[in-house]
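PROTOCOL LOG
Step 1. Enter all chains and additional molecules of the complex.
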Amino acid sequence: MAPVRRFLLRLLSFFRSGRAEAELAREIHAHLQLLEDDFLAQGMSPAEARSAARRAFGGVEQVKEHQRDARSFRWLDCWWLDCKLGARMLVKYPGLTLVGGVGMAVAIAIGAVFAATAATVDAKLPMEEPESIVAIEVWDTAVNDQERRILHDFVTWREELRSVETLGAYRSGRRNLIVPGGPAELVEVAEMTASGFQMTRVPPLLGRPLVEADERKEAPPVIVIGYGMWRTHFASDPKVVGREVRLGNAVHTVVGVMPEGFAFPMYHRMWTPFRADPLSYERRQGPGIFVFGRLAPGFTLEDAQAELTAFGQRMAAASPQTHERLRPRAMAYTYQLFDDMEGWEVAAAQILVLLLLVVVCANVAILVYARTVTRLGEITVRNTLGASRHRIVGQLFMEALVLAVVAAAVGLAIADLALMKLDSILRGATGGLMPYWIHLGLSFETVAYALGLAILAAVIVGVVPGLQATGRRLQLRLNELGGSTSLRLGRTWNALIVIQVAFSVALLPAALSMAWQSVWYGVAKPGFAAEEFLTFYLTMEREAPPSAQAETYRREYTARFGHLQAELMRRLEAEPGVSGVTYAYTLPGDERTVWIEIEGVTPPTEAEAQAESPSGYGVRAGSGAGHEVRFGKVGEDFFDVIGVPILAGRRFYSGDLKAGENAVIVNRILVQSFFGGRGAGDVIGRRIRYVGRGGDAGPEDVELGRWYEIVGVVENLPANPIEPGLAEAKLYHPAAPGQLLPVCLAVRVRGAAPETLAGRLREITTSLDSTLRLHEISALDEVYRETRRGLYMGALALAIVTLSVVLLSSAGIYALMSFTVSQRRREIGIRTALGADAGQLLRSIFSRAAGQLAIGVLVGLAAAAAVEKLTRGGLMNGNGVVLLPAVAALMTAVGLLASVGAARRGLRVQPTEALREQ
Amino acid sequence: MSSEDERIELLQGTLDLIVLRALSTMGPLHAYALATRLAQVSDHPLSLNQGTLYPALVRLEQKGWIEGAWQKTENNRDAKFYSITQSGEQELARQTERWRRLAGLVDKLLLES
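Step 2. Run joint prediction.
Step 3. Record the structure below.
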């Protein structure tokens, strides 16, 4: 007990040292008095008695020190003292605190965001032995993409693979869920093999998981629901097992409820048995599936890969038509989200982050070094009084650590905010369907990582200048106290300032250009009454019919979907307040990429085309030797309903919908860009054809080589009235109901907020057909706002980083100038005494900073020009001619401004003072 | 023999034992009285700077073996009087026993040789 009690009291004494000190002083005073009394009684004079008492007692300060050692933890005291000193330094040098703190905070924030994001790659599935769960994919080297139609292979793996057990598969899809008494709702359902539940080893909360018997065709349809679903849709009914729900057209019986937090395989809340029958499909036909399994005991991922590779080779030899270019591969389950990312990319990013921090810290270190030099007197005195070098460097480290920890706290707060935003943007972008094991936010590891960065920063900022300042025979400096110093800023640091200026000059133009664009996009209005539209995507449940019936099924499906779409539009139009309903393949602004050729005009070469418009997707099919444009498919009355004026020619009419008709409508910017300054009216009747298709457009979307005739020209949509050059060249095809799937519908609502129609829309759709699905119901201007939010975030982050770099560069230049001036005080003093004029002096002071600035600016300009050339003007959007000189001028101005303070101090040096100091 | 050699080496722990013993036999004492008592016992008035006591006192107090309270001395001076606590008495008994055994052992060893 006693040692514990003592430990606690020592700790307590650290926090209440004031009281203990007072008590000790009082006790020693009493002790001395008693001693004195005794010596007086022995016949000494008062003075003799006092000094005899002191002698008998021993050194008072020493006794106090020893008592403190026993009473408290001295190292804690020292540490605390250094902390307080560090905090005082923060207040005493606010400029350094602000500049250094902001720089480090930004660097640490970037590091923390990176760490938190990178952690998602290695995130563990919340289940037993998550590291043994693997995903198996098949890579098609012919198209460089996944091949998911692998039902046949899956069946073979299930029988043959020895290194992976409880092999399972799922496919995921949105289905309309109708719980008796509730409205239809679109939910993501996993059709999963029973082995999925076995493999995760997570027992159900209620009832049972899916079992193999459920997978038989004739088995009654059953469903397992997730915890959240059970809470919200069944009011946590303990007797939910046995109740019925409808998924699409089929009634399913609930057989189990999974516990909270379970959403395997991705983000699922409902599971139905996997019933795809491989026998009814050809190889590489049928539904796309995802395959997973658990490594068998004693087997590694490499074993699984070896087995799969052997399988792949065997299959390639046996059925070369289907399998020659297929490469099956196994990976850690969570890696399937990042299968395009190599390990070295993460490592490289990590190194970049660290480099950024080191650069920032090196800057702050220069500033701290400059400050340390001004404190050399204090340091030398302390050293002479007995403080060890170790102790002094320790103190400088603590001072830096205080700054770094404050910066880390600010950085973490920024990171937390950024991650929260990022998480909500991601969740928004994925429609809430984020893999269930991923939560972007500050974790314990991230905080630890940031603190690690802070310590690293403190070492660079505190220890390095500390060692340098205390390194060379400190004692000899006593005679230099208060005067100039013989310390020099090393070559490395001079080089660092040059690099920094160069870096700023190289980076700023691109950053400015990007920020500029983001802002323009952000404030631009779409050019039509987006706030009056409710938009949503409509699809219909689709089965994967056996290969033999696929074509018939497709025809029937399209006809039925077309009919239902038309009916839905008719009913919506009848709603009060609705002034029009139309449809398109995508939302205005999301059109897909193609390359076109204009009849009678030599198309640009691929290189020219890239220079013309380098921002689009790569060419997926055909050739990129053409003009890059976007294409849309729209309903007949699309432009009328949206309210886009026809500038020339005509709108679509029903005759255009017939097979073999070739009418297209183009927008104004397309005419301006590719028809050599002709007016809109001059292009009617001209023909264009597709030569290439982008990665975002499917093969069924465009027919390469077919000629289309321009029948009309419309205003740009969405328009960009502020920067018309930012509008994209587009062309539109007419499409009949049923031809587009999914189809994006736009309902124009007058006199009320468009969102108010959403409820009615759901009711009408459910009553029409329970297999119809609604996605992404949203007011159109809200969609645009969402897009802009991401752009704002990006621009903001970029602006902060750029600002920090500029700030740090100017701080570095300022430190350098202060140095130069303090080193040359004597010389300046003598020159002033000899009558040198202020201009001459200023010139000589500025020359060094100006030299470094000039080298930095030149190197930066060269780098920027090189990057600009490499990206063919992409980074600066062709504004390099204006931006580069502007940035160079800005950096020079900032650098010179940073020098002014120091230079003025130099001019104020009094000759007598400067000389006396020597 | 120099006076240095004659000094009784007060090993860590021995001082604690002596202080506890003094408080146990003499009742509450202030630091000065304790120091005087130690000097008497050791027969060497200069063997110990009186201030040396303070770390030991705070150590014993923190362990809960002694406790201090401000009182008046017979000369009407303020002084902090230390008294031994119950757990201090127990500790004294334990340490005395240990010391005796150790001393006996050393004695035996010295006699044998």
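Step 4. Note key features.
Chain A touches chain B at residues 1-3, 5-6, 9-10, 13, 23-24, 26-28, 30-31, 33-35, 37, 56-60, 62-63, 66-67, 69-71 (CB under 8 Å).
The first helix of chain A runs from residue 2 to 15.
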